[in-house]
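Why this split exists: single-chain examples teach little about how molecules sit against one another. For that reason, every record in the complexes split bundles all components of an assembly together and asks for one structure covering all of them. Below is a record exactly as it appears in the raw files.
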Amino acid sequence: MDSFFYLVMFAGAVAGASTGLLGVYIVGMRMPFIGICISHSAMAGTIYSILLGVNPVLGPVVFSAISSMSLGVVRPGRSRLDANVALAIFFNLMLGLTFLGIGLMHGSRSEVLGLLWGSLLFVRKSSVLIITISGLVFVVFAVLFNKELKVLLFSRTIASATGVHESFVYCLFLALCGLVLAVNLPLVGGLMIFSLITCPAAAAYQICTGHRSVIFAATIFGMASAVVGFLVSYYLDLPTGACIVIVSAIVFAVSASYRALMRKRD
Amino acid sequence: MMGECLSLSDVEVRWSGRTILAVEEIQIRQGEFVGIIGTNGAGKTTLLKVCCGLIRPNRGTVKLDEHDLAKLSAWRKANLRKHIGYIPQAAEYNAELPFTLRELVAMGRTSVKALLRRLNKEDYEIIDSWIERLGLLERRSQTFRSLSGGEQQKALIARAMAQDPEILMLDEPCSNLDFNWKYQITEIIEQLHRETKVTVVMVSHETSLLPSGCERAVLLHEGNVLADGDIEEVLESEVLERAYQCRIEMLKLSGRRYTVNKS
């Protein structure tokens, strides 16, 4: 295995760890659809960046930031719109914009279609640096606002009613969520990012006791899914994205089975 | 710190063009225990959510600690609500997350602490003292989801009390509990009111769940206040019959008031 593959594995590990950590909050707030919604916003942003000939990082960051902040407008108890319905509407809009952008393109569309599954094997050092920085920014946020995020996870209504500055922390979370997803999208792809957000975190929630252990387990499960999935695809000559998705689903299945077994024993 | 506590005047909440709550005047003084009762869909939960600023009324004024909630910025409103201990119905929180009981009670201190400040030793002493006071010491390392319904309710009360609230708002705290737990939970709430002088606003379907320490009741019917005053006067058969549209007999046993349908 040459040094390039270590870079690919490192990129996968960072992407898996940061999306795994992000998933703790997305799955915990019962909004797994937010991942696919924001990643499709980022995808639309990338397409319009290519169309307009601007920096390809700028478009996805701007698009995902706008959609993240717009989703922050849906307040618990204030709006009749359920957060998941709002997400579905946004998802449809972004999908429409994505395909409109694809339709307006001339020449090869392979680069754009690659955004669905990502292109981990075409990773560059600069993009690894960007996803590492965005992951670290999210870690800093999660540490600084740990006590507020825990209340938001348990109940946004309680957080709002008891003066936890819920809207401020939630909007900040959504903005960073958009950032992490936007920079990871070219590497991981819109479809794979969804599984890396949901499966590792859902697996951690099955077997852990205490919030801290959930955070560690989800981060490690995300990292392991990406690295193991990549190794499986390398040695068996299979598509990388598909292998990572399947490994992350297996991690969840094993955790859920373990919990069911423990419940039976009790 | 709160002075006059809470007041609503000329409040109206509309939903799809229909008025679901219309309150001319409700004032809650510091240290009161107020029970909010009424039929299904009478507007009890809406009233509670208006009181803590979760629902902004279409018309009228809601004052918390003499501050008009509508005129405050989100930041100032949040600072004011640090004094509210709120216990919602089960659908409003995620009981499936693996938070330990101690982590859950610690959430009460989050409101009190400023952003970016971590909980310290003193906070954890307060958290542990409420866990002990509610008789949950042996359960403190267990996950919230592994507790029984009654224990979960106790944990939520401990969380709200760890916040050191001036006003405690409870939305049907005894729903889905067996009769013994219902009794225990209401006894705990009454004891906390008596010992800490916290103002209590409690929504309940059943009149028997309002403990003897509850001096005042607000009876809602179709979004309107049908009666507000001394609990003995509000829980009169004739008054309740107007709300429930059936013949009612009130029975009083051990300080609790039971409603019997005589139709």
